[in-house]
Amino acid sequence: MRKILVMVVVVLVTAAVGNAAVNLLNNSSFESHADDGYGREMPTGFGLWTEGWNWNYIPNTEVVTLDARTGSASFQIDDSQGIGGAAVALTYTLGQLPVGYYHVGGWFKGDGTGGTVGVDMFAPDWSSWYWGGGTSLAGISADTWTYAGFDFQVTDPAVQFNFVVKGTAATPAFLVDDVIAVPEPVSLSLLALGALLLRRRK
Predict the structure, then answer these.
(1) Where are the chain's structural domains?
(2) I need a surface site. Which of 2, 86, 98, 157 has the fewest CB within 10 A?
(3) Which CATH superfamily is domain 23-183 in?
(4) pLDDT tens digits along 14-30
């Protein structure tokens, strides 16, 4: 019994220390930099770019300095015109990740009315991205920042993972800031503890 208690303490301490994990994204609280007017040419340190269903129309997708949760700016996505079926996405490349559990999410502001913003993963590449069981927000507050995030599991370390924030066609403008992607050491540690206890019972 004493050995089990020692294992529990070690696992919990490891989890607590691991919870200070560094954000996997290079820069998730935006600074003000020039772009090409469509948000396509962002500094590579952000690990982001935008895409749309209609490349000829990606309106008002840019870093803005009018409002930010932290830092000097936030990222704005606006498809309120909905021309040509365009839908705008802001994508963060995470690349290959070790097997385990992770959490991704971000803080959002909207206009307080319609439109839906989705937060999701896609993998392994651009040809197969989808709404993969993440989360979404509708009618986001215009006054306060609202957090949306979810957990996901990596079972194949060879897969290239990407995190996407997407507005459906005709979504009013919304802002995103302080995007995170972090390992979940608590989940991993508890799973490891469970495996140890099962092994002892055998």
Answers:
(1) 23-183
(2) 2
(3) Galactose-binding domain-like (2.60.120.260)
(4) 433 444 568 887 666 66
